[in-house]
Design goal:
This is Integrase, catalytic region. The protein is α+β, with helices and mostly antiparallel strands. The protein has helices at about 5, 15-25, 30-40, 45-55, 75-85, 90, 95-105, 115-120, 190-205, 230-235, 240-250, 265-285, 290-305, 325-330, 440-445, and strands at about 150-155, 165-175, 180-185, 210-215, 255, 335-340, 345, 350-355, 365-370, 375-380, 385-390, 425, 430-435.
């Protein structure tokens, strides 16, 4: 009976093939040279395998580490600790890569993404991110310099949790670097939110060359699409919105996209932030917009350090920023009002311009409504801004009617010979009608059957 029949052991297909050939060598069926040629091994290696099988059995052909736990393997205790963490509701929506970062940041557990993936799959927990086949499409090349193009948009979402009302995150991303250059949480997507994002960009970096937005009514007047070709040839233009006017005063080119895909970088940013920022705010216990805005600034630094790319041209395209006072007077709402006697009316109240010269003419001025509610006014032909002070409106009393001298007037009655008292002839009756005669007297003979 051969050695193959005496011993039973689990071997791989490759090892089983070797066992059969070595068994033939031991039985003398084939030579060592023939076995070496069949197994693609050297004769020395075949001799070593033959001696090992004779001494230890066919288990000698199995790999020495078979059945052993690797020295660098994840311990059962660590595996159970990781599973207990990732089963928490706040971590269930984190993808494998983000979960690896959160475990290192909050629990000092440093594992690879592939290890986290294996632990989740072994426990039957799938990643919330669906890996779809990539769609091949032509990508728009990034701008070469930082500050050449800024993409701005707003994203209403359940940022504070599914049980809280939706709020809007208004943000801007640099096209060349993919860096978040400004962001703020607001109750809704509004004008003051975009003013604040622009202020953050200009204060920290400078004035960009162009801004890319959608066609929201904050950016584009609803009447802009109503202009016909004839109107455009005649030079007619739709009025600028408040944000459009601010961009024009800053010398920023305003590019309006007609689809979400056109400004794909900022749309992709929302996908990343809705996946990461919401989870990290939940871990930090963020409950209000004020707390969210404070946390947002720290998150932006970490996001930019991870996702920012180097531009093709290292030189910045941002232009120098204006003074803080000038920027404040640009990033506000401006409305026209008539100035008369140094006083104007705004929102049902009267205001006077502080420091206005006495010789100032009655003209049209611009009322500046700042995001904090402060009111100021400027004269378009002068580079001067005046503070407004509310004045009390004079009390207007109705004039009493003048009493006439003499006795009160008496009712006037028509004279006895007044034409009104004279009779008139009724057709086809031959009777005369006077106010003193009754209907029976006039129509009596006519009404008889």
């Amino acid at each position: 009976m051969s050695l193959m029949e005496k011993e039973k052991i689990f071997l791989s297909d490759k090892e089983v093939r070797r066992a059969i050939v070595i068994d033939k060598v031991i039985q003398g069926v084939c030579t060592i040279a023939e076995a070496a040629e069949v197994l693609s091994l050297s004769e020395r290696q075949v001799k070593r395998l033959k001696a090992g099988v004779i001494k230890e059995g066919f288990g000698f052909l199995a790999h020495g580490n078979r059945g052993r736990k690797p020295a660098h393997a994840i311990s059962d205790e660590l595996r159970e600790q990781v599973l207990a963490i990732i089963r928490q509701p706040v971590f269930c929506e984190a993808n494998d890569s983000h979960l690896t970062e959160l475990l290192a940041e909050h629990y000092n557990i440093f594992l690879s993404v592939s290890s986290i993936r294996r632990i989740r799959r072994s426990a039957g927990i799938s990643s919330p991110r669906k890996h779809r086949r990539p769609k091949f499409h032509r990508r728009r090349k990034r701008r070469e310099q930082e500050g050449m193009l800024i993409q701005m948009d707003g994203s209403p979402h359940a940022w504070l949790g599914e049980d809280k009302p939706y709020i809007s995150l208004i943000g801007a991303i640099d096209d060349a670097t993919g860096k978040i250059v400004g962001a703020i949480f607001r109750p809704t997507e509004d004008l003051n939110g975009y003013f604040e994002v622009l202020r953050q960009i200009i204060t920290k970096y400078g004035i960009p060359i162009a801004v890319y937005t959608d066609r929201h009514s904050i950016f584009v007047s609803p009447n802009a699409d109503k202009l016909t070709i004839e109107d455009q040839l005649e030079g007619k233009k739709a009025n600028l919105t408040q944000l459009g006017r601010a961009l024009s005063e800053l010398g920023i080119e305003h590019i309006k996209a007609r689809s979400a895909q056109a400004k794909g970088r900022v749309e992709r940013l929302w996908e990343t932030l809705q996946d990461r920022l919401r989870i990290e705010m939940a871990l930090a216990g963020i409950q209000t917009i004020e707390q969210a805005n404070e946390f947002l600034q720290k998150f932006i630094l970490k996001h930019n350090a991870m996702f920012e790319v180097e531009p093709a041209n290292p030189n910045s395209a941002y232009r120098p920023a204006p003074s803080e006072e000038s920027l404040r007077e640009i990033l506000c709402v401006k409305e026209k009002r008539k100035l008369k006697g140094g006083v104007l009316s705004f929102q049902g109240q009267l205001y006077k311009l502080d420091g206005l010269p006495a010789y100032f003419p009655d003209t049209t001025v611009l009322v500046h409504v700042h995001p904090d509610g402060k009111l100021r006014a400027s004269y378009p032909k002068q580079n001067v801004v005046y503070d407004l002070t509310r004045v009390s409106e004079p009390v207007r009393t109705k004039s009493q009617p003048k009493e006439k001298a003499g006795p009160p007037p008496t009712p006037r009655r028509p004279a006895p010979d007044h034409p009104w008292r004279k009779g008139f002839r009724i057709p086809n009756t031959g009777s005369n009608y006077t106010p003193d005669r009754t209907k029976t007297e006039v129509f009596g003979s006519t009404l008889q059957p």
